[in-house]
Amino acid sequence: MIIGVIGAEDSCIKIKKCLQEVEPQLIIKLYILERTEKLLEVMNECDRNCDVFIFTGFEVCELVKKEFDLGKPYSTVKRGSFSLIKALWEVKDLGKDFDKFSIDTIEEQEVIDTLKELKIDRNRVYMRTDTNISIEEYANWHISLYKNKKIDIIFTGIDDVYNYLKKLGYPVFSIEATVPSIKNSYNYIKHRYKLNRAKNSQLALEILRFTKKKKETEQYYSDMMKLSEIELKIIEYIKEINGSIFRFGSREYVIFLNKGVAESDKNYRVLFDLKKYTESVGFILYAGIGIGYTAYQAESNAYNSLKKSEESKGNDIYLIDEKENLKGPLKSEKELHYSLISKDEKILEICKKTKVRFEYIARIISINNIKQNKIYDSRELADYLNMSERSASRIINKLVDGGYARVYDKKSDNCVGRPRILFEMKF
Predict the structure, then answer these.
(1) Each residue of 293-352: pLDDT tens digit?
(2) Cα distance between residue 110 and residue 120, in whole Å
(3) Fold topology of 2-76+180-198
C-alpha cells in the first residue's frame, strides 16, 4: 500500500515521520499543497502513484473534494482534545496570560468537554468548525474577534491561517496533529484499503441486450449500421470501466468487471449514457448487473437482474449482489434494497398465511422505509411493484384477508368518479 500525504509541508513531514515509526516498511509519498492553482496537478500525480490518501487537515480535504473526484480511500488527520491541551500547554510554558481565545477545526462538543475538564469558562471561548467556508474567512473571523477585543489569543489547526496570522503579528498558536490522531487516521485508511481490495477481488458481470423499438423489416441494413454504432459505444464503455466483453449473437453482450467498478457511480453514469444513446437510435437497452463469489453466481444474478430490466420494458436497470440482495431501479427515486432469499422469519410467516410471494413482501417493507409511511392505494402499489393495478389489488386483498393490511381511508380525486381506497400495511 502506497500512501500519499497531502497538505502543508510541516504537517506532511510530521505525519510521515510518525507513520514510519509505526511501520518502518511503509511507502509514503508527500504532496505539498500550498497553492490552490496547483491542486489538480498535485492530485493527478498523487492519484497515479498512490493507493490511498491522507490529508493533513479537514480544510485541505474539503478544498480537494470541490475540484477532484476522490475515487480511492482517504482519511483526514483530525485535531481533537489532545491537540487542544498540547496547544494550551505551549502557551502556559511560554508564561503568556490570556483571558479569552478563539479556536477552529476541533469539533465543538470536544472543545466543550476539554474546557470542562480544564475548568475553563466556555463563555470566554469562541469556536468555529464550518467545513464549507474558505481559509480567508477563517482568518478574517479570528482577526475580527481580536480587533474587537473579544479574544487575547488565537488557536488554529489550519496551517495557512497560522502562517498568515503569524506573519501579520497576531498572537496565534498552532493546533497540531498529535501522534494518536495520526495513528487513528492511518488505522482507518488501512482498514478501508483492505475492504476495497476484498471488494474489488469479487467478480461482477453485466449483461446487455438490445431490441428494436419498432419491428420494421424494411430497415434491415439501416439497423445493422445502427447496431455497429452501438457496438462502438459499448467498446468505449468497456474502456471507461476497464472491463472485458464477449458477444452472444447479434444483440447480446456479456461484460466482465470487478465488484468495486460495477457498484460505482461512475459505472452507473456511463451505463445510463449508453442506454440513452441506444434509445436515440431507435433501440431499447435491457441491462442486468450480477455480483458473485463465483462466475456461476455472478452470471445467474446478472440474468435475474436482466429479467427485471425486461419486465420494466427497458426503463430500469437492476443489480443483484453476492448475498442475493437486489438493488434497483438504479439511480431512481424509487430505488429499493431488499433480500431475495427467504430467511426473514417475519416475512416467511406473512407469505405462508397470505400466499403472497416473498419478494413482494420484501419490496413492500423496503418501500415502507423509503416512504416513511405504510399507506397505499392499489395504483400506487402497482407503480412501486411494477405490475398492473389488478395484480396489486389481488396482493392487497390477500394481505387484508390475512390480517396484514386494513382499509385506512377513502379518497376522491376532485370529487369525480369512484373514491380510491387507501390501505395501511401492518408490517
Answers:
(1) 888 889 999 999 999 999 888 889 999 998 889 998 998 888 888 888 777 788 888 988
(2) 13
(3) Rossmann fold (3.40.50)
The whole-angstrom separation of Cα 77 and Cα 83 is: 11
The answer to whether the CB of 376 falls within 8 A of the CB of 425 is: yes
348-406 pLDDT, tens digit each: 889 888 999 888 888 888 888 877 889 988 888 888 887 888 999 999 999 999 999 99
Tally of residues, the chain: 427
Residue 349's Cβ-count burial label (10 Å; 0-12, 13-18, 19+) is middle
Which residues sit opposite 325 in a β-bridge? Answer: 339
- The CA distance from 162 to 390, in Å, is 68
Q: Which three cell numbers stand for residue 245?
A: 466483453
Q: Where are the domains of the chain?
A: 2-76+180-198, 81-176, 201-339, 345-425
| Paired sense of beta strands 125-128 and 153-156, if any | unpaired
Instruction: Give the cell for residue 290.
Output: 450480477
Alpha-carbon span 243 to 255, nearest angstrom? 6
Of the given ranges (128-132, 382-386, 414-418), which has the lowest mean pLDDT?
A: 414-418
CATH 2.30.40.10, domain 201-339, yes or no: no
**What value, to the nearest 5°, has the Cα angle with vertex 389 and ends 383 and 393?**
115
Candidate from 34-43, 250-259, 274-283, 407-416 with smallest mean pLDDT: 407-416
Tell me the pTM: 0.52
27 band by pLDDT with thresholds 50, 70 and 90:
very high
Cis peptide before 329 (omega within 30 of 0): yes
Q: What class, spelled out in words, does domain 345-425 have in CATH?
A: mainly alpha
